[in-house]
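About this split. The held-out portion is used to measure sequence recovery: a designer receives only the structure tokens and must propose an amino acid at every position. Recovery is the fraction of positions where the proposal matches the reference. Here is one held-out target exactly as it appears in the evaluation file.
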């Protein structure tokens, strides 16, 4: 966060940081310009710890910067928290990202007597800026501060979103970005920086999303944007939307629960206006591909991380089955460096709720560099991934504050089904089958509402397993990614070691772990696989595990061999995976709450992962 204006910065910074809390962090801090010097306060832990530490301290000033840190270089300590101050006391800086060559820069600076006191790469950056500012004489019409920052950044390898202030340039502030988001908010005679519009949306009217290699300079009640090579940039402004209701809990105990319950609405929003008038297909406004180009696609490669990758894995089942196009799902972080051979008719699709995950963004850029068409599926309107893609589909799920993905996951799955139908109808999917699938999608929100009625039943089941420290989630076909998502949710919000497996794979190794202290949660909602999954349930049960099953409709006796049964609404095959997800989301949520975990902000996790 950064603020420069007429009002006191402290409250605005703390409010902004509060709205950025959902991104996940482990320490915080602010620095304000008090007229003669900076006041810097930092604290380990959450924002309340910082507020307590500030207490009655007179932290004045109408310019300031603030930060929530998710530790990369150096432990979670006050000394490593931001803002960092250069050793000559001149520069304060907040930094997201990683300076990859910080050791080399640190060695160089050490020789010039600029030494760090923390373990972070960010303090090195503060020193580097101070070093270059000290050498600047302001000649050439540029602010010496801006020029010092620019020269410093020319030496940096890695990712950064920074905001900096300098003692000798009290009315100025500089922000810059490379691979880590930074947005300039423009209010009435005041300016803001934030890595997400949520940081200033209640104050600013307009926003400018900086591009990589751009710097924004605030001075004299105005702003200018230029590149690292000093070219002036005329950036487009976007209106800032502030939807307070979406970032409040509205009576729910946690954001995670609220967002689980929002899913009927977010699914409606994902589908709105995207069915073809004859009701047999789907269409998307932003693909930027002609029918001819869509028909030429002979392979799809999805790149994503975490939950988004599991949504793609469900998409793989759907698209291969409905559109008969081969699909591969890649870990974005691996794809980027793997140099995978792709052929010219391959469509690369980056999927990311935030639109800022650096691994996914880098995979997209790598594919683009090689000349492939790249598409994005994202909830992040105006995000880096949305802007870099050639075309794409917005999720319209609204802000997701809980760190663990819930509503953004199901909206991605819904869009996967819609994309499969879209590509299928251009190929061999009949009008009749298309109509049946569209009908199934239209019924989906009310079926999800029905699934949510299981909430109390799921809580009762969770009460029985809340003491367990290990658990397997098992499923077959499209239930397999749901199993992986269930395991991920449980790890994240309940700190239970969990694994999601293809049910038949258990006997190839993991079954060695099964026993009375390691229960198994079976997703048995794929009608075609029920007999097979029944055998898998028996195999695990025979080894003493307690069994939870989620079933729907006629379960062919699977539930009779389970200890606990959750009965979900039965739907069409293309939507069953999505409906089954509700059970594992609720289960993870209740397990987390019962185990006393902070389900909205789990330890060690960040919502927007802007480091590799
Ligand atoms: C899981 C979760 C993470 C994200 C992953 C990718 O609940 O939230 O695994 O799915 O970090 O994030 P996005 O979708 O923003 O690229």
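Reference sequence for scoring:
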């Amino acid at each position: 966060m950064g603020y420069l204006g007429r009002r006191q910065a402290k409250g605005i910074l703390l409010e902004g940081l509060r709205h950025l809390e959902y991104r996940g962090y482990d320490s915080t801090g602010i620095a304000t310009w008090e007229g003669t010097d900076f006041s810097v306060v930092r604290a380990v832990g959450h924002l309340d710890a910082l507020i307590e530490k500030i207490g009655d301290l007179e932290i004045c000033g109408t310019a300031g910067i603030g930060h929530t840190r998710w530790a990369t270089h150096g432990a979670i300590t006050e000394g490593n928290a931001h803002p960092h101050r250069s050793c000559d006391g001149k520069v304060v800086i907040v930094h997201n990202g990683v300076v990859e060559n910080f050791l080399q820069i640190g060695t160089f600076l050490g020789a010039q007597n600029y030494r760090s006191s923390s373990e972070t790469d960010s303090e090195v950056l503060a020193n580097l800026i101070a070093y270059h500012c000290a050498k600047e004489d302001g000649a050439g019409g540029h602010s010496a501060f801006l020029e010092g920052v620019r020269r410093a950044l020319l030496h940096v390898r890695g990712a950064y979103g920074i905001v900096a202030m300098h003692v000798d340039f009290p009315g100025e502030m500089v922000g810059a970005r490379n691979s880590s988001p930074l947005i300039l908010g423009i209010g009435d005679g005041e300016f803001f920086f934030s890595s997400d519009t949520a940081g200033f949306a209640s104050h600013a009217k307009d926003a400018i999303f900086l591009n990589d290699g751009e710097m924004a300079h605030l001075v004299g009640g105005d702003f200018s944007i230029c590149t690292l090579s000093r070219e002036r940039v005329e950036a487009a402004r976007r209106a800032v939307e502030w939807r307070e209701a979406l970032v409040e809990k509205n009576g729910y105990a946690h954001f995670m629960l609220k967002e689980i319950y929002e899913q009927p609405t977010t699914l409606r929003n994902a589908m709105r206006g995207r069915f073809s008038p004859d009701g047999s297909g789907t269409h998307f406004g932003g693909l930027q591909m002609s029918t001819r180009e869509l028909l030429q696609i002979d392979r799809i490669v999805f790149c994503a991380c975490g939950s988004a990758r599991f949504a793609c894995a469900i998409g793989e089942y759907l698209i291969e089955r409905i559109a008969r196009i081969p699909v591969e799902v890649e870990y974005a972080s691996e794809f980027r460096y793997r140099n995978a051979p792709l052929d010219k008719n391959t469509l690369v699709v980056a999927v990311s709720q935030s639109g800022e995950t650096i691994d996914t963004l880098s995979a997209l850029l790598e594919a683009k560099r090689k000349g492939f068409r790249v598409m994005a599926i994202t909830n992040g309107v105006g995000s880096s991934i949305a802007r870099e893609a050639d075309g794409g589909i917005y999720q319209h799920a609204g802000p997701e504050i809980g760190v663990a993905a819930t509503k953004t996951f199901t909206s991605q799955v819904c869009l996967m089904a819609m994309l499969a139908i879209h590509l299928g109808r251009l190929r061999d999917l009949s009008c009749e089958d298309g109509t049946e699938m569209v009908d199934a999608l239209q019924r989906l929100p009310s079926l999800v509402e029905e699934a949510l009625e299981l909430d109390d039943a799921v809580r009762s089941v969770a009460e029985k397993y809340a003491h367990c420290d290990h658990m397997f989630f098992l499923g077959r076909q499209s239930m397999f990614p749901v199993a992986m998502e269930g395991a991920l949710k449980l790890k994240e919000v309940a700190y239970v070691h969990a694994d999601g497996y293809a049910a038949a794979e258990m006997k190839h190794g993991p079954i060695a772990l099964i026993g009375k202290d390691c229960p198994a949660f079976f997703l048995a909602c794929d009608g075609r696989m029920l007999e097979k999954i029944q055998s898998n349930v028996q195999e695990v049960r025979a080894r003493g595990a307690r069994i939870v099953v989620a079933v729907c409709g006629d379960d062919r006796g699977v539930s009779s061999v389970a200890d606990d049964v959750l009965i979900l609404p039965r739907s069409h095959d293309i939507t069953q995976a999505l409906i089954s997800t509700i059970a594992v989301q609720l289960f993870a949520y209740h397990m987390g709450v019962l185990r006393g975990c902070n389900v909205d902000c789990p330890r060690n996790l960040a919502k927007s992962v802007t480091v590799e």
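Annotator remark: The two ends are 22 Å apart (CA to CA).
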